[in-house]
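Quick sanity check, Flagellar motor switch protein FliM:
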Amino acid sequence: MVDVLSQNEIDALLAALSSGEMDAEELKKEDTEKKVRVYDFKRATRFSKDHLRSLTRIHENFARFLTTYFSTQLRTFVQISVVQVEQLPYDEFIRSIPKMTILNIFEAEPLEGRMVLEVNPNVAFAMLDRLLGGMGVSPSKIHALTEIETMIMERIFSRALNSLQEAWKTVMDLTPRMEALETNPQFMQIASANDTIALISLSTKIGDTSGMINLCIPHVVIEPIMQRLSVHHMFVTHKKSKTPEESEALHARVNMAKLPIIAELGESHLSVREFLGLAPGDVISLNKPVEEGLHIKVGDKIKYMGSPGTLKGKVAIQITDIVTEEVEEHDE
C-alpha cells in the first residue's frame, strides 16, 4: 500500500531539502537500490489469489448448504459463514487446533488423498446435546466420546459431506466418503509437516453456542484440478456431450412434435362488399399463374415447392422441390 503524506509532512520534507538537512541525490539512490523481500520456504505459496477466491466462492455455497442441513437435523437456529480462506503449512494447522477435537477424515473420489473436516468440541457437543434431546448446550468440560456418541457424530458429519459434494458441482463431481473419526490431532496424518494446505474456516453458531469448523485440503490432493479453480474456467460454460440414451430420447420427442403445414394456392384482395357477396360457383382470381409451383410452409417458413393434384379422389399436393434457406435481408 502506498503511504500518502499529509500537507504538514510535505512542508517539512520541502523545508529539510531547502535547508540541506536532506540530500535529494541520497533519496534517489535509496529508491534505485534493489529491494529484497523475505521468502519463507516453510510457508511456500502454492495457491494463487485467484485459486483462493475460487475456493472462497465454492465454500460460501458449502456454508449455505451446511446451514440448511444442520438447521433441519438439529431443529434449531444454525448460522454458518466463511470467515477466512488461507494457505499455511500442515504442521501449523495441527498446532492451531485443540488437543481434543472432532476430526472427520474423508476422501473425495476421483481426487486422491485425504482431507479433514475439523469441528470445534464446543460446536460438536452442542450438536450432540441437541440430537439427544437437550437444549443444544456444550458441556463445561469436554470428555472423551463414548461409542454411542462416536456413532452419532459419524452419522451426522458423514451426511454433512453431501453438502460438500453439492458445493463442488460447479468445478467437478466429487464423491466424499467418511473414512474415520478421530479426536486427537496427533493420531491424524494426512500430509507431511511442511506440505501446504488450504484452510477454509467457517464460523458456526448453534443457539447460544459458537465455534469454528475448519476444512483442511492438502495442496497435493487438489493439485490435479488446480486449473479448474481459475475464474475463467469457472465462468465458461462447457458443452456437455449427450449420452446415446439422451440423444435417442431427444430424437423421439422431436419426432412427436406437431407443426402446421400449409400449401398456399395464392393471394387475392377483395373488398368487404365483394367478400360478403360471394356465392357458390363464384371464381376468385389469384395472383399466381396455374403453372407456377405452390409454396408449402412449415410453420411460417417456406420449406418446399409443390404442384396441386388429386390422389384417390382427394385433393393432394406433390412436393417438387426443397427450398434452401437464404439469409434474410433486413430493411435498413
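Posting the structure with no commentary besides this: Residues 49-74 form the longest helix (26 residues).
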